[in-house]
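Re: weekly structure request thread

Next one in the queue (86 aa):
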Amino acid sequence: MVIYVDNMRAPYGRMKMCHMIADSTEELLAMADHIGVERKWIQKAGRHDEHFDIALSKRKLAVEAGAVEVSMMDLGRILRARRQSN
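Done, posted below.
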């Protein structure tokens, strides 16, 4: 199982945000817990494209904990493949 964080840098207030996805909901939630992201911020829960939008400071923590850095294009390919396999 793998956690992925993309290279998006979307402004949100004073923060810059990116996406975090995982191969399973359990793994995604475990990483959110580990890096201090509240579970209530999950987006599209239970769907092929469930994810968290996380600040770059949380992204750094996720990478330090083993998350794989991918491009936005790569993340899109992963999500597209999931949708097609459902």
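Helices lie at 25-35, 56-64, 72-85. The two ends are 18 Å apart (CA to CA).
Next request, please.
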